[in-house]
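Standup, Tuesday
Yesterday: got the pipeline producing structure tokens again.
Today: sanity-check two examples.
Blockers: none.

Example 1:
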Amino acid sequence: MILVLLVISAVAFFVSFIYTDNPISRRMLTLISGAVVLLSLLAIVANYYDHYGLHKVSVTSTKKIYSDDQSSSMNLILYQKIGTSGKENVYIYSTKLKQKTPQHTQADEYTTNKVKNISSNTAKLKTTKTYWEYKSNASKFWFGIAENGHELVKRVNNFEIPKTWIRLSTSQAKELKKELADSKFQQQVKKEAAAYVEEKMKAAVIKDPSLATNKVEQEKMEKQLAAKFQSEMIKKLISKLK
């Protein structure tokens, strides 16, 4: 509507200046229409450059996510490096179990990705989007023709992942899978894992003799120790990949 007002006031300025015979009326109409033209132009410029008539509105959504690699016992949050600076990454994740085609974050100037570890066992993605929205119906009435309402300002993806999850680049993930699939490596790890669990179990029985007759607790502890060994072993492999 602001453009319509600009056109009408410009026509009124021309008509009043050229065709109004009465000097006083011509002067008043010219000043009024000229002021409207000027104010309309200033409002258009302010709306375009400074988002006059708009304000920022943020919307946050949360969804549960799953490891992109669901074929193994490892939970991974993968990222693909973008550019050469290493500051911009696209993260890959799934929103469903056994999802065939994973999703990824946006690769644009509006998006920022953050990853933090949490004590929970559930991984989540909290996305906060900030938009320019019209302050009122009046603002939309005057500047709606520009269609700059609901314009994206920024998007922040906050990945909250359990401490047991591993953050890897796609290239690191490929190297890790290759290493874990090696038969000689698997045999070596199996022996080392058995020795590790046996050693820790002996130490636990010495510390708490009642554990020797508690089969349920023994099985529980063995699983925990095996998981701990696997986690430490993977961390060592990853440190070599970096």
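Example 2:
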Amino acid sequence: MADLDGSQLLVALFALILVSGIVQSLSGFGFALLSAPLLAATIGGPQAISTILITGTACDIAILAMRRSVPRPDTREVLTLAGWSAPGMLAGAWLLAALPAVGLQVFVAATVIAAVVLRLRARARQGIVSGRWAIPAGLLSGAFSTSTSLGGPPTVYYLVHRGLKPHTMRDTLVTLSLVRLPLSVISLLVAGVWETYAYWPVLIVAALLGQHLGTQAFHRFGHARYEHIVLALLTAAALVSVAAIILR
């Protein structure tokens, strides 16, 4: 992918963000899991983080706005996880500034693969856990969010064990992303690593189109195949992350 010229790169990134938008609409997370590895490999870590924040936020807003019913996130979970994410975000922004490009790519790949393992464990060990586990989940999620944009896995693993229904879990994850957005931007600005990709407005269109397609798919089979969809997407993201390192 390093040989792509400007226009070819834009087309490739448009397709990547489109698919990521579909993923996000289906499960409420996964946008960064799929797009972060290839974005970091092509436009660099800092621009990848800002691009995911911008396009992912557009997708999240559209998901909530286009709901056929009033969104019903678990407000207590959102506020608790967001609060504990704040110190983790500062640490993650520092890590983004300190890690070399290759080191960041390896870190992204390891995080995605760990997400697959966590999801498999979550499927094997169903049950309700204490709300105190929101503390480490929030800290880790915040750190991963600003260092790799992969803040989803820790919160997903935690929320899966809180007994939330698919719609509630998706709304909770999407709302959490929106609540944490200002904290993420501030952390990146403080660390001096906020950079934007020149054609990010075009990628917003891709994210919104993907969101629309994903929402249609979710209403068609989201309830019946929810768990299988999430696991398949995480596995695909892990394979993409390894390929991104090999192609670098």
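Quick observation on example 2: The mean pLDDT is 81. The two ends are 8 Å apart (CA to CA).
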